[in-house]
Amino acid sequence: MGVASARAVAAELRACLERQSGARMIFAAAPSQLVTLKALCHLPNIDWRRVTAFHMDEYIGLPARAPQRFAHWLESNLFSQLPFAVVHPIRPEPDPATAARVYAERLNEAPIDIVCLGIGVNGHLAFNDPPVADFDDPLDVKIVELDDTCRQQQVDDECFATFSDVPERAITLTIPRLLRAGKMFCVVPGAVKRNAVRATLHGPLTTDCPASILRGQANCTLYLDQESDPDAP
Predict the structure, then answer these.
(1) Residue span of the signal peptide, if any (predicted)?
(2) CA distance linking residue 127 with residue 63, whole number of Å
(3) How far is CA 221 from CA 59, 114, 127, 175, 191, in A?
């Protein structure tokens, strides 16, 4: 699944670079994305010097050098591995509200060509958890409160030792901002995601499962494995 999704992302990226001077991508930072990102790093014939990178969320309140910060995770697993033209990390300090506004402005300087994303245990996209997700959000980047299921997922993913270690707030790209990308590649491995995928594919279109909005997006491809596929035998 990870290799297949990476090959599809690479094919779309090559096509973008053939028809335009550069490409702009948004990446999710999560263990579920690791195989895809590692495979992407080794695929040939991509001029990464013409690719500008963003990421889709970041915790508020962690020390600047905390390894759990998503910017650091992506730096270790992706950004340091390839010669990107520009990488735009989300830096909440010193004022998260200003950071969110400035990041939205950077995103809107040109179209986003590709988003590499996943789905959370609670169906979230980026950090748009059910209590704060808005399919008609007027903002492109905003500050959110993380719900308990989302915070527990960070512990279960072994990103934090205890629930209380997980920050309560974050900066996130909103759902409408993500959906405006040219192409979306959504990678969702593991049995722990099966219920969220079932709700995404077969449940009502509702912010109770934010990922359900993907069902109406012709520009989105969903990649599942045997464990995450609710329709697998």
Answers:
(1) none
(2) 19
(3) 27, 11, 20, 16, 19
Q: Is residue 196 one of the residues assigned to a domain?
A: no
Q: Which helix (H) or strand (E) holds 117?
A: strand 114-117
Residues 6+ apart with CB under 8 A from 212: 123, 199, 200, 203, 204, 205, 206
C-alpha–C-alpha distance, residues 21 and 34, integer Å? 28
Judged by DSSP in three states, 96 sits in: helix
* pLDDT above 90 for 157: yes
Q: What is the mean pLDDT of residues 145-160?
A: 96
Q: Is 200 left (phi over 0), alpha (psi -120 to 50) or beta?
A: alpha
> What per-residue confidence (pLDDT) applies to 233?
87
> Which value, to the nearest 10 degrees, does the dihedral of the CA atoms of residues 225, 182, 109, 207 take?
-60
Q: In this structure, what token pair is assigned to residue 26?
A: 């948004």
Q: What is the CATH number of the domain that holds 167?
A: 3.40.50.1360
